[in-house]
Design brief:
Blueprint: E1 3-8, H1 12-16, H2 25-31, H3 41-51, E2 55-59, H4 66-76, H5 79-82, E3 87-89, H6 101-110, E4 116-119, H7 128-144, E5 148-150, H8 168-176, E6 183-185, H9 199-204, E7 208-211, H10 215-218, H11 223-231, E8 236-237, H12 248-256, H13 260-275
Parallel strand pairs: 1-2, 2-3, 4-5, 5-6, 6-7, 7-8
């Protein structure tokens, strides 16, 4: 079984005209350019079929405007039925300063979403206010038994749209303070996983998983051997970030790394266990 744990879709209405959504500064920071590709569930299913992907998790978006987050959630809740159950959507949580985090998490749970995210702070980075937001989010998500996917980019290297100061120190404090929360740190946690060579960090982050999204843009293929040696293969999730990159860009290097058990973990086993997928 192959499960792509990190993809992005938007409603057909958004594909027909993103202009009105550019009022949201978070959305504008990523999708202002027409070159930033948008797809809906049909586009994702086509890519899945082309790469022999069995299931995919479709991430929501970190809108600032609550009405945009609500509209995306209304679309996303229809996607399991539209995809024959092959696309598993996560709920969108608005990151505006007025957001009632606990109430929004309850709504996501009541709508039947399997998780929350991808949560990001593209416009502001990790500020004291965003740290408090994450504290509230992990509190509420733990009570709701929902995993949370956090966008975490690396603090060094080349610039790209949406890259911000990830605040590793603050992020670690939040995670360490919520040891029972199930947290997926996208993009290899921006390199945060390497700090798990410190025993106390590994203990504090024992319930965190890392996804591979955007790897070809960030790391050479040795990451697929190095990372499992630090965290164990049971804490890594294959994610493509499609439509940013094709799933095929990942399958060959992952297929050459590790052993059969670790490859099975990364390509789908870990995601199936997290999401309760049995076949």
């Amino acid at each position: 079984m192959i499960i792509d744990f990190h993809t992005h879709i938007f409603s057909p209405e958004t594909l027909r005209g993103r202009g009105r959504l550019l009022d949201d500064e978070q959305f504008r920071s990523i999708y202002e350019s027409e070159k930033a590709r948008l797809i809906d569930h049909e586009g994702l299913l086509t890519a899945m079929n082309g790469a022999s992907i069995d299931y995919a998790v479709a991430m929501g978006f970190s809108w600032e405007r609550e009405e945009f987050a609500a509209a995306q959630n209304e679309y996303m809740r229809t996607v399991p039925g539209l995809s024959g159950g092959r696309i598993i959507p996560f709920g969108s949580l608005p990151v505006g300063e007025s957001t009632d985090v606990a109430a929004r998490v309850r709504e996501i749970q009541e709508m039947g979403f399997r998780g929350i995210g991808e949560v990001s702070f593209y416009r502001s980075g990790m500020t004291p206010g965003r740290k408090e937001f994450l504290e509230q989010l992990l509190d509420a998500a733990t009570r709701a038994s929902l995993p949370v996917c956090l966008h975490v980019n690396e603090p060094v290297g080349h610039r790209y749209p949406g890259k911000y100061e990830p605040g590793f120190g603050e992020l670690y404090e939040v995670i360490a303070g919520h040891p029972e929360a199930r947290v997926i740190l996208s993009h290899w946690g921006g390199g945060l996983l390497f700090y798990e060579l410190m025993p106390e960090v590994r203990r504090a982050m024992r319930n965190c998983l890392y996804d591979t999204a955007a790897s070809p843009y960030l790391y050479d293929d040795s990451i697929y051997d190095i990372a499992p040696g630090i965290t164990g293969s049971e804490r890594i999730l294959f994610g493509s970030d499609y439509p940013l990159l094709s799933p095929r860009r990942y399958l060959d290097p992952i297929g050459k790394a590790g052993n059969e058990t670790s490859r099975a973990d990364i390509l789908g086993g870990n995601a199936a266990r997290l999401l309760g997928i049995t076949g």
